[in-house]
UniProtKB/TrEMBL annotation:
One of its GO terms (cellular component) is extracellular space. The keyword Amino-acid biosynthesis does not apply. Its cofactor is Zn(2+). Keywords: Hydrolase, Metal-binding, Metalloprotease, Protease, Secreted, Zinc, Zymogen. It is found in: Secreted. Belongs to the peptidase M36 family. The gene is MEP10. This is Extracellular metalloproteinase. Residues 231-246 have a biased composition (Low complexity). It comes from Grifola frondosa (Maitake). Residues 71-106 form the FTP domain.
Length: 289
């Protein structure tokens, strides 16, 4: 569980269920291994159902990718036909159609409320707009959704999920508002600041003087960039590492980065807003003083 500080006066807990990760050497069979017509999506569902002991309708496939050497499937947990926002699983198959790796944060909820909301989503938007600050943008933000959210006590809350942001303040959040009580349950912050304030000598503790560090990237770790090993580019649009236009290469597209140079919203800083896939990222670089 993490505590997120939103502005000066507001804090909220962001919880992620414990995850597990297994590897299987050269690979193990899955329940559909002998079916030559089985898709990787169906194979993944069958394996997860068998491995975790869950029903087929508890698994919802989010995305899948088949390459020359491996195949990958990414899924979300479902309860009562409703997706669980923070419970996922991923599975990797080798070229021989054997399972070589499996990760999961699926849960067995201790308490599950009704999947039918008691409060209309239009009545709770103002809650998310007023607490962290920002507005719901009907034109540029994703469609409102209904999802369960796992809480740190093992129960799940039915939540209305939508995004709010304030371009001038450089904020962009995804809000989870309880669909039965109307209270704000959690948020996901899409903004990353590129400066860090820390003790000047990095060892002196809180009694030492402070300085603001910028250019925090470790170029020594990735001298050739994120999508290159120095000789070959590893960008694959079909695997959803996508620009705005994929030119028929697969993937969801619309992932361009919007740049704002000499942004008037702040001074001596920069931030990067990275929402969910298929939404344009935004980088804002403000002027120095």
């Amino acid at each position: 569980m993490r505590v997120r500080n939103i502005g000066r006066d507001f804090k909220i807990e962001a919880y992620h269920p414990e995850s597990s990760y297994e590897t299987f050497g050269t690979g193990i069979d899955h329940p559909l291994s002998k079916r030559v017509d089985a898709s990787i999506e169906d194979s993944a569902i069958a394996f997860i159902q068998s491995h975790l002991g869950v029903d087929t309708d508890a698994v919802h496939v989010r995305s899948a990718f088949a390459g020359q050497a491996a195949q990958h499937v990414y899924v979300k947990q479902q309860i009562n036909g409703v997706s669980v926002a923070n419970a996922f699983a991923n599975i990797a198959f080798n070229k021989d159609n054997k399972v070589v790796a499996f990760g999961s944060s699926f849960v067995k909820a201790s308490k599950t409320p009704s999947a039918t909301p008691s409060i209309n989503i239009k009545d709770v938007i103002s809650t998310a707009e007023s607490v962290p600050g920002g507005k719901y943008d009907t034109e540029n933000h994703p469609t409102l959704t209904l999802e369960y959210l796992v809480k740190d006590d093992g129960s799940v809350a039915l939540t209305h999920v939508f995004q709010v942001g304030d371009e001038a303040a450089g904020t962009w959040y995804q809000a989870f508002v309880d669909a039965h009580s109307g209270g704000l349950v959690s948020i996901a912050d899409f903004v990353t600041k590129s400066a860090l304030t820390c003790p000047s000598d990095h060892k002196g503790g809180l009694d030492s003087s402070f300085e603001t560090l910028t250019d925090l990237q470790g170029l020594g770790a990735l001298p050739d960039g994120w999508r290159s090993d120095g000789t070959t580019s590893t960008t694959t649009t079909a695997a959803s590492t996508a620009p705005n236009n994929n030119f028929g290469g697969g993937g969801s597209g619309n992932d361009r980065v919007k740049m704002s140079v000499q942004d008037s919203a702040g001074t001596d800083n920069a931030d990067f807003l990275a929402p969910l896939m298929a939404r344009a990222d935004t980088c804002a670089c403000s002027c120095g003083i």
